[in-house]
Amino acid sequence: xxxxxxxxxxxxxxxxxxxxxTRRWLSPRSWSIQxxxxxxxxxxxxxVLTGGSGGGRDRNPRGTTGNTGRDGDGPVxxxxxxxxxxxxxxxxxxxxxxxxxxxxxxxxQGSTGAGAKPHYLVINADEGEPGTCKDIPLMMAxxxxxxxxxxxxxxxxxANFCAxxxxxxxxxxxRRVQAAVREAYDAGYLGKNILGSGxxxxxxVHAGAGAYICGEETALLDSLxxxxxxxxxxxxxxxxxxxxxxxxxxNNVETIASVPAIVTGGSDWFRAMGTEKSPGPKIYSxxxxxxxxxxxxxxxxxxxxxLLEMAGGMKDGIPLKFWTPGGSSTPLFTADHLDVPLDFxxxxxxxxxLGTTALMIFNETVSVPxxxxxxxxxxxxxxxxxxTPCREGCYWLVQILERMVxxxxxxxxxETMVDVxxxxxxxxxxxxxxxxxxxxxxxxxxxxxEFLDLCKVxxxxxxxEQLDDLVGAKA
Amino acid sequence: MTLTQDSGSDTRPVPEGHVRLTIDGIEVxxxxxxxxxxxxxxxxxxxxxxxxxxxxxxxxACRQCLVEVEMGGRPMPKPQASCxxxxxxxxxVKTQHTSEVADKAQQGVMELLLINHPLDCPICDKGxxxxxxxxxxxxxxxxxxxxxxxxxxxxxxxxxxxVLLDRERCVLCQRCTRxxxxxxxxxxxxxxxxxxxxxxxxxxxxPFQSYFSGNTIQxxxxxxxxxxxxxxxxxxxxxxxxxxxxxxxxxxxAQRNDTRRGRVLRRLAGNDPEVNEEWNCDRGRFAxxxxxSKDRVLRPMVRGADGQxxxxxxxxxxxxxxxxxxxxxxxxxxxxxxxxxxxxADAPKGVGVLAGGxxxxxxxxxxxxxxxxxxxxxxVDFRVxxxxxxxxxxxxxHVIGTSPETGGLTFTELESAPxxxxxxxxxxxxxxxxxxxxxxxxxxHGLAVxxxxxxxxxxxxxxxxxxxxxxxxxxxxxLAGLGSDVLDLLGQDxxxxxxxxxxxxxxxxxxxxxxxxxxxxxxVAWIPPRAGDxxxxxxxxxxxxxxxxxxxxxxxARAVVATAWGVDELPAEPGRDTSGILAAAAAGELAGxxxxxxxxxxxxxxxxxxxxxxxxxxxxxxxxxxSAVTELADVxxxxxxDINREGSYLNWEGRRRDFGITLREPGMLPxxxxxxxxxxxxxxxxxxxxPGVAGAELGRLGLVGAARPTGAVTAAARERxxxxxxxxxxATWRQLLDVASLAVDEPHLAGTARAPEARLxxxxxxxxxxxxGEPAVVATERGAxxxxxxxxxxxxxxxxxxxxxxxxxxRVTLGAGHGDPVTVTAGGN
Lengths: 475, 829
What we know:
The complex is a heterodimer of chains A (475) and B (829). By secondary structure, chain A is an alpha/beta fold. Chain A contains 18 helices and nine strands. In chain A, the strands form two sheets. Chain A has a five-stranded mixed sheet with strand order 6-5-9-7-8, covered by helices on one side. In chain A, strand 5 (281-288) and strand 6 form a beta hairpin.
């Protein structure tokens, strides 16, 4: 991992970096509970559950004011925590950017009706979006920040059970998080009566079986219940009927790992980073043709130009051709978009989406149709099969693209492809189908000529071998 | 539904519990929670769909039903699936008729559905009645732009012996898997793989062994699921369809007979929301090959001097039958060839009539009337299983005359009941459509189901029911000692007790049910095993009751019937029941027997039945197919199966289930016509020439009404044999798919039967040295049955056997029944 998340004191670190989630990553044995505790780990939890004994605002390393969720001694009321997260403006880091505090507040509370059912917290660690590489390094380098976030979040939403659903292929992170959960149990941060607060929480680390669709929250819940992972009909939403039909919060790893820092730093501190509507820091995963690919934690709203600066520029100086702002499911950008602010609003305004801030960067040596074909092959492989447009559409699109890349496309194939995309986008059951169309439609939008150039090698008259095929018909 | 088509909007208030929305410019009020596609249907706007089915939970999988929706004046950004969206106030909906977006979305989905669909419509079973074909025509493009390779699979795949899967045709709407999981509770089929490789499949070692699998073939919107029996036999447009009623059990499911060139090629479930909704069981659907079995009796037969049955003309057969019956009735036997009287003066007299339970109400009425007028006796009984006076008393007090019109329990009421108690009834095995309704009620309304039985059968599990275990024979005590939780639930308004016909095997059980119903106020329904049982009861084919539930000992009631029948008087002495009649014949006390569709093996003691048939001097058998009765009969008269006759059954609700003739077959006469002609030969007029006439007369007689007896049912005497040391108590009932005579000649169906297994609990098995999976031998003095052992949660010392399955015909082999002691030993050597 060539990341640039060394301490802020480092002189060669560009000013744009804001290491919050990544600040411990380069510490020795950063994943151990000892390192974590030495670096303020589990202090936010102590503050929440025991009222910040001997701490409180004064212990705030950043001296920040504003809502820290605490107003004195004694445990923090869960509702105040939810309000804190609302005030911080934290938005979901899994791609959709839904306000996290609002999501938590949808969980029915009380002793009657849906509120009387057990509540669950489920962590979506099924990181599978092409190009995305933030949750897995986070779980590898700093699993306890996730666990501490899980405990605080569970306390806030009144859950006593939390499941961390990790992508099955990611064996190392699974083991690391499992080990961290064991450490947390041993240290009394998990189990019964945590830190003497009377709050109980169990965390289960669940390994998925390697299906992209299980990153969709309702498919993830079905998979977690032992069923076939396919998205559920909504409503009901997980907040009212999620895991085992009980109120459930499903959040991304990065989102929940942000929670302890917000509890410690307060909402004003958090809002000091990023933009008005997209506050806070974000891990940008740069991959592809850059000098120093890796994870760069910067405030939301940073531009690719700035990120490239930090990453040492394009690899070997070959110019940028196209890139994705947030994984392959977000419409791609070109060199014209170097200054688009990479926050939720900026990416949308420029015609794409922030997604998972997985920046796949391609230089001029890469064929756009080829890259789009590879992505589409991924979607065809990962389409869950539940709904017609995605299942059949991806099957069709792959064949068209493979044919085009093989030089056997026609101009009308481009129109067919775009029209098939139109028949998938917004017609599918979940967002997987929508995502599958993004690379194609955006590629045709910006690089239509490349597709046409591929067609040029296709003669306008039937090739001889095709004529051979037709001999029987003529006879 | 109200709708206005004028441009101005409706100013009337929206009815309570409704919302007002606009669909294609038409304002409509719809009940809250209604799914949009149904509201469209009510307006006559048909939105194309595949996965949607009104009886299945919404899935939203096929995306064919996309429409444009505007909420609060703002159009939703994407077209919405109308099969999953519920109506809302102020919603504005544009279907394909008024929205280009919706139309293009539908055409797009249709094109995508077709890219991998084979173009084999001309040889596909579904072609001609195929929703995909039809909707591709109405809502698809004329041609496809798909020039790539289609996905292929090996086919067909036999997912059971009777259901074959063509994965290429499948559009993955999940109707079949959802039906199996939701409706039947048999999730044997499931989606496998993903993306374009997604397919329906079964686990390697578990075929699609559901009693309801045929429904998936019927609701499949393409030709992906086909039946082994019908595959490639016909095209839908060559079939003639006739509505019919199932003859296999007492639920009276609506069905459809599809025939071609004089043969039934398939049967489908009919749509009757009050009874079977749109479902039926595989037995009802597939067990019709008996119609063409080689054992069918098609011509009258008379036993000649050589002792062999030989075909005869109707005239001759009826004459011989009439002469024989007259002689038997009067004990006036003709002189034999040598001029001697064939019988001494004290020769037996009298004719008994065994009607059997497969009759239509009209035919049963003819048997009842034939017995009283032609045979001059009340010795008539339709009952086949164990019979008791207690049963008759129970039926008279709780069952006769009940119907949906007179406030009897119905399927619909069962669905909304708070609690149901099944007594001597394993619903899935013995009344499978009742089981479906119980399961639906459990899923939709939280019905609490209690099963008084011996082990946690699939019925118990799939209704999420509570087993109330009882050693066979002690069921009455179990009912008397029910816990207060059960009693509280049964005391709630609408609670129901379902009593199976085999309750008669346990003395005191009917009385206990009657007492429990009185104590809790729960409603009682009697669910007999056969289609004709209930009608035969009401038609008076029982020894103590005349038509309409009139007691034979009630002079006034007798007079009413006598007047209607145009005779001076009717026999006043209560008759004997089926076993009594056969015992009398065996003992030489009864000379003649008229036997309807009756299988001696169904009787409590098949040997006694055969002894009775042999003992009678003259036996007339009215039969569909050669049987143990026809083998011993002097005259065999063929009767029409349901497809060749018309009539009606009374189902267990007391609901009249009329059906007409599917195939007209000259010479195939219903029982009532045969009996009428036979009576004429005996110089008696029955006036039952046609089912219509017979039914009309029965209708005019009506019910006894207020004169219906009330009060406690007297429990029959209890003299159970206590199992001796080393013995077990037998529990037994039949399975849906077994060796029933109407299920012959259908190996595909038989292949989906549950494997016959003996069941014992762990402790008993251990005590007897039995091992699960190994053979266990259940024996009486008469014989032994060896079946593989399966452990189950039976009470200690109780062994369960399927009553009439291959290798396990309990009555015939053991001569024992439910509650009798048997020995159980390890099989093999």
